[in-house]
Amino acid sequence: MKKIVILGSTGSIGTQSLEVIEEQKENFQAYGLVGGTNINLLIAQAKKFKPTWVGIQDESKYSELKERLPKDIKVVAGDNGIEEIIADSDYQVLLAAISGIAGLKSTIKGIESGKDIALANKETLVAGGELIMNLVKQKGVNLLPVDSEHSAIFQSMNNHKRKIKKILITASGGPFRDYEEEDLKGVTVEDALNHPNWSMGRKITIDSATLANKALEVIEAHYLFDCPYENIEVLIHKESIIHSMVEFIDTSIIAQLGYPSMKLPIQYALTHPESLAVKWPSLDLAAIGSLNFSKPKEYFKALSLGIEAGKSGRSAPIIFNGANELAVDYFIKGKISFLQIADMIDKALNNIDKIAINSFEDIVFVDKLTRDYLERSF
Fold first, then answer.
1. Are residues 135 and 246 in the same domain?
2. What's the CATH code of the domain at 255?
3. Smaller CB count within 10 Å for the chain: N or C?
4. Domain ends where: 145, 173, 205?
């Protein structure tokens, strides 16, 4: 029985992770659940899965949470409380699914506690990069990707000793993949959230619409697989059946295929290096019929901006990430248009000095600097 702590249990990845745990209850136990502000869902999860720990990021909800949960569940709130859960010695895997820069600190604490990390937080490696990978090596823990694309790369590379030529990251293209640039001027939040293939949270769904998510994934892949940016390529693949591919130096390409679902990468991160039988159907390639590929359109500028930020190094990826998070929030709130998301990112990258990153505090500083600058500018 493998015991799991889920950071972000009330989010999209967290809820699907609990579905996996329920389907594989003879193999997994939800040992700890941490939610953000959705107290009703967190309480429902706790009553169903009966974890040892339940935490909530919003400290103002602590008293209500404690009052409404059974007395035998340990209840905590805020950063200090969550760190107490992470430091517990009686579990094996920390599933890091708190979105945004907020998930970085808790992931670092998990690595420092010697836990294997099932990583569903893109920003951890985008912002933390070398700091995170050095800490992983120092502590001797496994960093297991939960993103479908990175899980696919990980599975395609697994146990292969051949030298890699290229990583091919696939992208659905989002709801606007067939739009021309002129068509993007009037799109709404509802349009951007209408993803054709995947069911995800609001922020990552809009990142998929701008292709900013692929820029984040390229940066992640660079660190996870120690692969030069020049050897990472993004392909639009509208069916979302091939989740990513690896080309070796002999031009052989190995891919991982499956229906668009996060359950498989979540489960593989929890079971690695083993696999478990599942209840969902096998992939029916004959029914799918054909698979299509194309290059990303150049006017989805968030993609190229993010990749260039990754290549620039230093604090540039943090500026890209912080600017994108704020821009998406502004778009959702109706403060800017869809195309202005890339404009905000571009403005931040061109006007904020790039510095070396030597600590978590440096990351927080650059993230705040980016947001403060843009809030004054827009």
1. no
2. 1.10.1740.10
3. N
4. 145
- Please compute the mean of the pLDDT values over residues 68-94 and round it to a whole number: 96
How confident is the model over 235-287, as pLDDT tens digits?
999 999 999 999 999 999 999 999 999 999 999 999 998 899 998 899 999 99
Compute CA 169 distance to the chain's CA centroid, rounded to the nearest angstrom.
Answer: 14
With a pLDDT cut of 90, the percent of the chain lying above it is: 89
On whether both 20 and 166 belong to a single domain, the answer is no
203 pLDDT more than 80: yes
The answer to the question of residue 125 being in a domain is: yes
pLDDT at 199 over 90: no
Whether residues 154 and 40 fall in one domain: no
Burial of 17 per CB tally in 10 Å (0-12, 13-18, 19+): buried
Average pLDDT score, the chain: 95
Residue with tokens 């390639």: 285
CA dihedral 110, 143, 345, 209 (to 10 degrees): -120
User: Are 297 and 234 spatial neighbours (Cβ–Cβ below 8 Å)?
Assistant: no
In a shared domain, residues 162 and 135? no
Distances (CA, A) of 116 to 39, 91, 130, 137: 27, 10, 18, 12
Same domain, residue pair 128 and 187: no
Say yes or no: 108 and 170 in one domain. no
Look at residue 268 and tell me if it is in a domain: no
Position 330 pLDDT exceeds 80: yes
Q: Are 132 and 112 in contact (CB under 8 A)?
A: no
Clarify whether residues 161 and 122 are in a common domain.
no
Q: Please write the tens of the pLDDT for every residue from 119-172.
A: 998 889 999 999 999 999 999 999 999 999 999 999 999 867 789 999 999 999
Total domains present in the chain = 2
Question: What is the per-residue DSSP string for 103-142?
Answer: HHHHHHHHHHTT-EEEE--HHHHHHHHHHHHHHHHHHT--
